[in-house]
Write a structure and sequence with these properties.
Number of helices: 6
Radius of gyration: 15 Å
Mean pLDDT: 88
Strand content: under 5%
Order of helices and strands: HHHHHH
Distance between the termini: 29 Å
Helix content: 55-70%
Number of strands: 0
Number of domains: 1
Length: 114
C-alpha cells in the first residue's frame, strides 16, 4: 500500500507544498489566495488519480495514517476545497453572492468525539 501512496505523492509532488495542508482553515486560505489557473492545474493533476488514491487510502486506518498517507489525504481534502470553484465558479477563488468568508472561523475538533 505504501508503494501506491508514494507513487501518487511523487506524481503530485509539485502540488504538495501549496495544497497538502492539514487544516480546513489553511486549505480555505490557500484557495482564497490562489487564482483560477493555479486551482485548475492542481485540479487537473489530482482528479484523474482520485479513484486510485481513495483505494490506496481506504486500505489504511484513518486513526493511524503514516505521514506520507496523511499528506496524500490532505491533498484530496484540498481538492474538495477547490473543486466547486473550478467546476462551478469559473476558477474564482471566492464564493459568489456569499457572505465574506473570512467571517467564518473553522474550529478544529477531535473527530473521535463527534
Amino acid at each position: 500500500m505504501t508503494d501506491r501512496v508514494n507513487q501518487y505523492l511523487a506524481e503530485l509532488s509539485p502540488y504538495v507544498e501549496l495544497w497538502a495542508l492539514s487544516t480546513q482553515s489553511e486549505r480555505e486560505l490557500q484557495r482564497r489566495g490562489s487564482n483560477g489557473p493555479q486551482m485548475q492545474a492542481f485540479y487537473d493533476a489530482i482528479t484523474p488519480r482520485m479513484e486510485g488514491i481513495i483505494d490506496a487510502l481506504n486500505d489504511l486506518s484513518l486513526g493511524d495514517l503514516p505521514d506520507n498517507a496523511r499528506t496524500l489525504m490532505n491533498l484530496t481534502l484540498s481538492l474538495a476545497e477547490i473543486a466547486p470553484h473550478v467546476e462551478f465558479y469559473q476558477g474564482a477563488p471566492g464564493v459568489p453572492f456569499a457572505f465574506a468568508e473570512e467571517r467564518f472561523i473553522a474550529e478544529r475538533a477531535d473527530w473521535t468525539q463527534l
